[in-house]
Amino acid sequence: RERFTRDEGCSKAVEEVFIKLYNKGYIYKGSRIINWCPVCQTSISDAEVEHSEQTGHFWHIRYPIAGSSEFVEIATTRPETMLGDTAVAVNPEDERYTDLIGKTLKLPLTDREIPVIGDPYVDKEFGTGCVKITPAHDPNDFEVGKRHNLEEINILNDDATMNDRCGKYAGMDRYEARKAMVADLEAQGLLVKVEEHVHNVGTHDRCKTTIEPMVKPQWFVRMKEMAKPAVEAVKKKELKLVPERMEKSYMNWMDNIRDWCISRQLWWGHRIPAYYCDSCGEVAVSKEKPALCPKCGCAHLTQDEDTLDTWFSSALWPFSTLGWPEKTEDLEYFYPTNVLVTGYDIIFFWVIRMVFSGIEQTGQLPFDTVIFHGLVRDSEGRKMSKSLGNGIDPLEVIDKYGADALRLTLITGNAPGNDMRFYWERVEASRNFANKVWNASRFIMMNLEKAESAEEPDPAALTDADKWILSKVNTLAKDVTENMDKYEMGIAVQKVYDFIWEEFCDWFIEMVKPRLYSDADETKGAALWTLRTVLTNALKLLHPFMPFVTEEIYCTLCPEEESIMISSWPAFREDWRFVEEEKKVELIKGAVREIRNVRTQMNVPISKKTKVFVVSEKEEVLDTFEKGRVFFATLAHASDVLVQKDKTGIGEDAVSAVIPDAVIYLPLAELVDIEKEIERLKKEQERLTKELARVNGMLKNEKFMSKAPQQKVEEERAKLEKYTQMMEQVTLQLRQMEK
């Protein structure tokens, strides 16, 4: 299904809601303080105002007390707005000014006098304790003005130039007028001082122009009543926000919600269905233009030229797209839905508005859960923007690395509500993972093609390795399902990633290769069935994150099924819980890791095979290695595996590695040329001795320690720790060799 905001169905829903709310008294037209963009020359909502810290100034100005030689001092960040002042407010509990309340002040640069009023809005501790009140150009002042019945004097034109009420400053740009007025105040001895001041400045989120609070006649939605059920829904946990911390932002905005300015002075949008009588000015709100004025009978009516805020129609999206206000089959089936996934940056624009609109128009919440994801930022943590030129075109990423790689990158290592940085290297790593899955699947399918059968074997035919990987994928299905139910997508996909790359590809596939390559191995069929089964389940678990590669592989692997999308999700199976077999294989894996560490430390070429002795007094440990002998030998690069209870036949020069309940021995002579290795270790010992002497010398040098940057000092300390550990290892190996 496809919908566009201006489709007939959506437009019909918008008209229906506007008229319904107007008739209910929730929509009204009035002169209130709004956010005005001087460049776009339209009103904008509070949610469209971005606040950023900017360095400005506090201008301290004297306001003379009428009939006196005394002054009061006010501080303002916008001196040009003083021409619209209609009072100066003080806190009625501020003893410094109680005797001034009721008196008048001479408003500088004008011939007007304004009263001193008492209002608790004024913070006694901030600034001078005297606040200029400009009701037409400040939202807080507007509220103070309403409480004290103050005049609202608008001093700005729509383009932010000073209007005709500003005398000599009329026609000047607001900032040009500011400079001129400050100069005049200084000339008249009324400018006390200018201080630097960092404060939040509101800008239009689209054009980045500093907005002007301004009193203008606009259309508004009364929000107090409609906000109540939306607040209760979150309080009662009927609406769940993920992550939970978003509740604070939600509630804070709702608790301080103001009437919503919904009219815009734009040419594109849903036009307000209000008509004005050209004779008497009566307003008629209706779907069609009335033939006659309902008040005076005049036949000449003109439609309001304003359009509606685009978020007014977006707020209706969950039900307007389904045919509302008609009772359609889609509406009945799909509304309400379950989960909304969206960015945290539009919680106020869209999420909250959908919530209160859904409740108001349908009596139901539009969804029960909202998952907030973060923003994708550039590698330096900056928000992507045209001005910075740091935007990443997702189509470019997809063309280079594939859609699956991009999806995986955006989900991996990310928690709900957290921003992430975009690195090309991460996308490349995700592409490499897709290749890993693809190549592993090809290997498995090639072997399946050669096999006579890969039917489910009798459980007794499964080896410990088979049971281990089945148990692992079984636990994975349980864990991933739990993570997905909690909307922990980043955690879920990391578990799938780790399982496929490490457990399945790096371990199990390598374990079963000897069985696949041996026609005589009776467990070959069990190995193939296990490979196919585990791969199938792993693809299903990976599918939500990498849909394309998983669909392609799955449809080839399981031609009897239509699509992985509609296949059954892996469920936890009690008969696949193989706790003992897991322990056994993990023991062998631990032994392989220790052997690999020894070989790495001694620089043994990967092609060189050696005998491996496994010594343990416990029968169950010996039995584990006997049963796993074939794959253990492959993974450990062993020419032979000898499992025994004591050290019989093991030379004194053997290198050992300890694992739980057993010791692994490797004949030293088979690992390296002892004389050459002693020579290499002595050279390494000499090199490390010099490095340690250099580092210690620097760290004991008082001049270096006092003058070097802290970062440099920390680097040298880290080197000391590293070289010390290396020296200990080299010394230990050398001692062992010389024995």
How would you describe what is shown here?
- This protein is α+β, with helices and mostly antiparallel strands and 739 residues long.
- 43% of the residues lie in helices and 18% in strands.
- It contains 23 helices and 25 strands.
- The strands form 8 sheets. Strands 2-1-10-12 form a 4-stranded antiparallel β-sheet. A 4-stranded mixed β-sheet has the order 6-7-5-8, covered by helices on one side. Strands 23-22-25-24 form a 4-stranded mixed β-sheet.
- Helix 13 (464-485) runs antiparallel to helix 14.
- The longest helix has 29 residues, at 710-738.
- The mean pLDDT is 92.
Concise synopsis of the structure shown:
The protein is α+β, with helices and mostly antiparallel strands and 739 residues long. The strands form 8 sheets. It has a 4-stranded antiparallel β-sheet with strand order 2-1-10-12.
Overall spatial form: elongated
- Per DSSP, the total helix count is 23
The helix/strand class is alpha+beta
Rg, rounded, reads 38 Å
What's the number of extended β-strand segments? 25
Fraction of residues in helices?
A: 40-55%
**Which residue ranges are poorly predicted, with pLDDT under 50 across at least 5 consecutive positions?**
none
Describe the biggest sheet? 4 strands, antiparallel
Q: What proportion of the residues form beta strands (DSSP E)? A: 15-25%
Strand order of the largest sheet: 2-1-10-12
Residue-averaged pLDDT, rounded?
Answer: 92
Task: Compute the separation of the termini in Å.
Answer: 79 Å
